[in-house]
Design goal:
flat; mainly alpha
Length: about 130
Amino acid sequence: AVTQSLKRIVFHEPRPAKFFEGIQEVQTVNGTELHMMNSFPSGHATTVFAIACLCSLIVTNKKWQPVFLVLAIFSALSRLYLGQHFFADITLGGFIGTCSATVCVYWLSKPQKIWMEDCLLSKLSNKKHE
């Protein structure tokens, strides 16, 4: 949601094919449909880094963390190879995905009772004691 909002409401940036239109031909892979707008940030990079971060945080064997990171990096770089994004697009997408997954795991890992007490019940009980 964050990435799509940024792409469609805030930035609305051209993709490489549109940016270099009439200046230089963008190298593509045969059969790849080139999109023209909404380049920044990359939704694919956001998704793959969120998944990699989530896997890194929940998998108990931490030896898998570099594997998840490498897969995320190669997946994001594939968006450059296909001529769909600029480096800045995948960088911010990766950052958003990593931050989103980290915040979600932190928030969901707190027991609901504690969360409710912190946010709602403690405020109500403090008012009763005043």
